[in-house]
Design brief:
Helices cover 35% and strands 27% of the residues. By secondary structure, it is α/β, with parallel strands linked by helices.
């Protein structure tokens, strides 16, 4: 079963174009997007997360387009973008409590435990956290939504090997007990070699 499928996706922003994107993510599969900066990886992830709108084609989640079951799809999809997309003046604890108001399925208890395990002070404003702690916080929040699809843009960029291993151990601990499919972009060769079931190459706004 395909949990995610892109059919002839086209997207233009200024001079940048994503064209003829056809891609499938199977149930339980772990796929990495690889390509040089500017190849379109981040734009593709934003389209999948519905942060940007495609100009043509289709994106199917569990064989449905977003408009057909937006609440159900968003419940099962977690996306980690390259940049923080919430108010950094808030504390980690405040952020997750706000999320829980709109997403009752979000596990505040699990999230706080993961913050503690990773040494993240949930009472500190996010802007005061180091860059690597911010990255960990984003991934922890995404996992604590209990998703079926996890899409991540460079989830371990800028982290040392120990921190990268911590993040992947957390993700795979979750995956053991959940039917999780993963799509992520990365520049770390060892992540691709050791973790990915398949590598998808992007170049000049297309998949080769």
């Amino acid at each position: 079963m395909n949990v995610l499928e892109l059919k002839n996706v086209y997207f233009r922003q200024g001079n940048f174009v994503l064209k003829n994107i056809n891609f499938k993510l199977k149930d339980g599969e772990l796929v990495v997007l690889k390509g040089k900066s500017g190849s379109g990886k981040s734009a593709l992830i934003e389209l999948i997360g519905n942060a940007k709108q495609i100009d043509a084609g289709k994106i199917l989640y569990f064989n449905k387009e977003m408009y057909e079951d937006e609440s159900g799809i968003r419940r099962r999809l977690s996306v980690v973008y390259d940049d923080i997309n919430f108010n950094e003046e808030m504390t980690g604890k405040k952020i997750i409590r706000e999320i829980h108001k709109y997403e009752p399925f979000f596990s505040v208890e699990d999230c706080l435990k993961r913050f503690k395990d990773f040494g993240i002070n949930s009472d500190m404003k996010v802007r005061m956290l180091s860059a690597d702690m911010k990255k960990k916080l984003l991934v922890i929040i995404a996992i604590s939504r209990n998703p079926d699809i996890l899409v991540m843009d460079e989830p371990t960029k800028g982290l040392d090997e120990e921190s990268r291993n911590e993040i992947w151990n957390m993700i795979f601990d979750y995956k053991i007990n959940h039917d999780l499919s993963i799509l992520f972009s990365s520049h770390h060769e060892h992540e691709m070699e050791l973790l990915a079931d398949r590598v998808v190459w992007m170049e000049n706004g297309g998949i080769r």
